[in-house]
Design goal:
CATH topology: Maf protein
Order of helices and strands: EHEHEEHEEHEHH
CATH architecture: Alpha-Beta Complex
Shape: elongated
CATH class: Alpha Beta
Helix content: 25-40%
Strand content: 25-35%
Number of strands: 7
Radius of gyration: 17 Å
Number of helices: 6
Number of domains: 1
Largest sheet: 7 strands, mixed
């Protein structure tokens, strides 16, 4: 079997692949993550393709898995917060509202590539200002799309989730395994 490479520095994606006992190595891509205004689903697909292509150039024989996740509130994409004030602003926007989490992923080997996107709808309960302040002070929101981690303390804010939980963590594992089968990789 070809080597499998996770083209991501995300500890959450690494943990998800370890949990399904998929043997892999990590090579973080160095790509431009900026894009002109585009719908969130198209954005995450494009960014996952860029990441996969960057790593595939270095290791063309390997099966490369790349992903990108964003939180979208109506038409606004909420990426990773710049600082504590930005995290607090995002959490205030999400308070008591429904939003979507999109993860795009690409599996690539040589010139062959499959790209997919998954959407999960998340509803936050109304948040108290002091809860937002304490959560931001915990440091957990930093480095996370939408300024929260559903697998950590951020779970305290989630009232309802419609779709794939693992998509919100950062990688829709069920759908990924279906695509990996197309590349001759069987997880179970």
């Amino acid at each position: 079997m070809s080597a499998i490479i996770l083209a991501s520095g995300s500890p959450r994606r690494r943990e998800l692949l370890e949990q399904i006992h998929l043997p892999f190595e990590v090579l973080s891509p160095d790509v431009d993550e900026s894009a002109d205004s585009m719908p969130p689903q198209a954005l995450v697909q494009l960014l996952s393709q860029r990441k996969a292509a960057a790593v595939a150039q270095r290791r063309p024989e390997a099966i490369v898995i790349a992903a990108d996740t964003v939180v979208a509130l109506e038409d606004e994409v909420l990426g990773k917060p710049r600082d504590a004030a930005d995290a607090a602003r995002m959490l205030g926007q999400l308070s008591g509202r429904e939003h979507s989490v999109y993860t795009g992923f690409t599996v690539r080997q040589g010139a062959r590539s499959v790209t997919c996107a998954e959407q999960t709808v998340v509803t936050f309960r109304p948040l108290l200002p002091e809860e937002i302040e304490r959560y931001v002070a915990s440091g957990e929101p930093m480095g996370k799309a939408g300024a929260y981690g559903v697998q950590g303390l951020g779970r305290l804010f989630v009232e309802r989730l419609d779709g794939d939980y693992y998509n919100v963590v950062g990688l829709p594992v069920c759908r990924l395994c279906q695509v990996l089968r197309q590349f001759g990789v069987t997880v179970l």
